[in-house]
Amino acid sequence: MSSAVDHRAPQSSPDGQPDGSAGAARTGSEEGSQEGSEKGPGPGLSHRPRESSLERSLQWTLGGLVLGVLLSLTAAGTWILLQGLEQFAASRLAHDAEALIAGIPAQGLEIERPLPPVYSQPFSGHYYVVQLADGRTIRSRSLWDHPFEVASLAPGESRLELRRGPRNQWLLLWQAGFERAGSPFAVAVAEDLSALLGVLAQILYVGIGLSLSGALLLLAVQHWVLRRAFRQVDAVRADLRRLTAGEITALREDVPAEMRPLVGEMNLLIAAWRAHLERSRAALGNLAHALKSPLALLLQIPESAAAPAVREQAERMRALVDRELKRARLAGGGAPARHFRPRQDADDLIATLRVLYADKAFAFGADIDAPDALPFDQEDMLELLGNLLDNAAKWTRGRVRLGLRVAKTLRIEVEDDGPGVEPAEAQALLSRGARLDESTPGHGLGLAIVGDIVRLYHGRLELSRSPSLGGMRVRVELPLPESLR
After folding, report:
1. What is the number of alpha carbons within 13 Å of residue 478 lying toward its C-beta?
2. Of 198, 225, 240, which residue is a domain's last?
3. Using CA atoms, how far apart are residues 82 and 434, in angstroms rounded to an integer?
């Protein structure tokens, strides 16, 4: 624990400027009553980009392809069936035309050979017309008085088409040009295909319906298969949350082969980060021991033998070393480290403070309403809570109170019954990070370190007067990880 910031009126050095150690703790304004350094986007940047989903893209792409293939197969099958029916009907019409040609009379308008009775029934759907070169036109009785045009075709030429006929019937019309005894003539034979076309339309509609149903079924099966496959991704995402919370130290590697290289690289990165953090903390500890011994020797030189400037610079160097070492040891949120245990860690800190301030008899009250473990770095929280409690124990007259609660945030309140600070003094302390009393031992680093931790966790720090005890009240709020909200 560092020495805490004192609560008294500000003092100035002989040159009129704030004390040098306070300059080392210049970030006081950053610690007080403010959010973390990261701000949300401005009004013009609040628009969130549309999220892309691999699963949704696969579903739409594969679903569209399946539906397109099924509809294409349905259309192709219906077209092939229609062509087959037309060819079958055309061959039958050609046979009827041969009977007509054999029965064309030399004179008159009646076919001399018998034909099927349907050609005699009005609007039966079976019709014929023979256009002779001498101007005669032989029509089937089934046409009644309905006009029916026949194309003039050269001998040997034929034509097959769909045409509207009597009573709006869909007729398959077969026409051909012939020549007999040097005289050309044309024959047209037609058959109503309305019933067959209706059946084909039903087949097409049923095919479309089955295609849509099949596509939906395939989409459902595909969604189930993709969900089952993406559960491995969900498991990795859950591991990342647990890693952020400090519950595990590496991601599981029993994942699909496609994801294994990514998970392996992330585990290597995590291991390298942890090793770097441990090396940094060890190096800083070694640096602290290496620097503090020479500084301690300098400070032990009697004032009569040491120049005031040397002693002042040694004090400033020790303050700067303490401040930067404590800052560098902070891990911050999202670091896979040991959990903060509110009750146990608070009890340990209180026991330590009773030993440090054994000459002071004060009552210590703790009101802790929190889980047994919280996903905050333990060393960071010990640093934060230790500085706050040390500050209170230093200035208390007899009572110190700790409150720690978890709701939407982690709220820590430390109060004492010491002299406290006035609102103006608290604001000055927050704005410059200065020590308000030079007579009490310390380097003015306590609230500076607390502020660094609060800012690292994007929280808030507030100084005020305790309404119940009358001394200083320090309130800290830190946002909880998403898993605890």
Report:
1. 27
2. 198
3. 94
* Residues 472 and 368 grouped into a single domain: yes
Any domain includes 88? yes
> How many domains, in total, are found in the chain?
2
- Contact in structure between 188 and 175 (CB atoms under 8 Å): yes
The reported pLDDT for the residue numbered 346 is 92
Residues 16 and 425: their CA atoms lie apart, in Å, by 18
Q: Mean of the per-residue pLDDT values for the chain?
A: 75
What pLDDT, on a 0 to 100 scale, did the predictor assign at position 36?
41
What 3-state class would DSSP assign to 296? Answer: helix
Are both 341 and 437 inside the same structural domain? yes
Assess contact for 401 and 415: CB atoms under 8 A: yes
Q: Are 306 and 435 in a shared domain?
A: yes
45 within domain boundaries: no
Residue 472 lies in a domain: yes
Strands 363-369 and 409-416: unpaired
pLDDT at 21 over 60: no
Q: Which two tokens stand for residue 377?
A: 């770095």
**476: part of which helix (H) or strand (E)?**
strand 472-479
Q: What are phi and psi of 34, to 5 degrees?
A: -145, 160
108: left (phi over 0), alpha (psi -120 to 50) or beta: left
Q: Position 319: which residue type?
A: A
DSSP letters of 317-372?
A: HHHHHHHHHHHHT---TT---PEE-HHHHHHHHHHHHHHHTTTS--EEEEEEES-S
Residue 120 reports pLDDT greater than 70: yes
pLDDT in tens, 384-439: 999 899 989 988 888 999 999 998 899 999 999 988 877 777 655 654 344 444 44
Q: Which domain holds residue 123?
A: 57-198
Strand, helix or coil at 288? helix
Task: Give the residue from 172, 198, 224 where a domain finishes.
Answer: 198
CA within 13 Å, CB half, 101: 20
Residues 133 and 278 in one domain: no
Other beta carbons less than 10 A from residue 331's beta carbon: 20
Q: Is 421:463 a contact under the CB 8 Å cutoff?
A: yes
For range 364-381, the mean pLDDT: 88
Q: What is the pLDDT of residue 35?
A: 41
Residue length of the chain: 485
User: What's the CA gap between 458 and 478, in Å, rounded?
Assistant: 7
